Amino acid sequence: MRLLLVEDDNHVAAALSAVLARHGFDVTHARSGEEALQALVPEVDGFGVVLLDLGLPDQDGYEVCGKIRKRTSTPVIMVTARSDVRSRIHGLNLGADDYVVKPYDTGELLARIHAVSRRTSHEDTSSGIETELRLGPVHIELPTRRVSVEGTVIQLTRKEFDLLALLAQRPGVVFRREQIISEVWQTSWEGTGRTLEVHVASLRAKLRMPALIETVRGVGYRLVAPAG
């Protein structure tokens, strides 16, 4: 898999590139946001994942993420020292598929890269069944991956849509955290649990329906179908 590493620190980039190369990745290193954007030409980029450090010298990393998402659907994993939920939700709203908080374990990073790449590959090769889900004012079109609330289209990231679609197919049923992680992230790695919490929070905020997804303490989540 080709991977675009956006990192301004040459020492960090060299060490990480070596690790990634040992695991079969073909790494292209961009030292700035502008270099990253130049590398991501939709017709020819061919990257499987973008690993985006937010501490760039020329542009704000969040701004770069937004520009990347407008240019290509390639999965983006943010690397950030900001561990608060609000910062992570902001990144997801801009189109990031996942994030890794510094300092991170190499095994964690590899697990997240493989998870987003597997999910993307599955989406590209699967043929969707034409169907839709209606839950009160929420309308979910599975084939087109389109979500609207009272007719207003809501922009969701790939993982946010997958999470919502999973819960919405069985309203009222409690999904265990492990089950959600397995089906949405295609992994059993336990550290993905925090990512799940952030995606749930982001969905609640974007849909402006905090009661739509209920937390079942110690178990997981369920979708509470709204009236109307």
TrEMBL record:
SMART domains: REC, Trans_reg_C
Response regulatory domain residues: 2-117
All copies of domain OmpR/PhoB-type, residue ranges: 130-225
Residue list for modification 4-aspartylphosphate: D53
DNA-binding region location: 130-225
A Pfam family of this chain: Response_reg
Cited InterPro entries: CheY-like_superfamily, OmpR/PhoB-type_DNA-bd, Sig_transdc_resp-reg_receiver, WalR-like, WH-like_DNA-bd_sf
Coiled-coil spans in chain: none
The organism's place on the tree of life at top rank: Bacteria
GO MF terms, alphabetically ordered: DNA binding
Keywords, ordered alphabetically: DNA-binding, Phosphoprotein, Transcription, Transcription regulation
PANTHER family referenced in this protein's UniProt entry, alphabetically: REGULATOR OF RPOS, SENSORY TRANSDUCTION PROTEIN REGX3
Name of the featured protein: Sensory transduction protein RegX3
Organism in which the protein naturally occurs: Streptomyces africanus
Lineage of the organism: Bacteria, Bacillati, Actinomycetota, Actinomycetes, Kitasatosporales
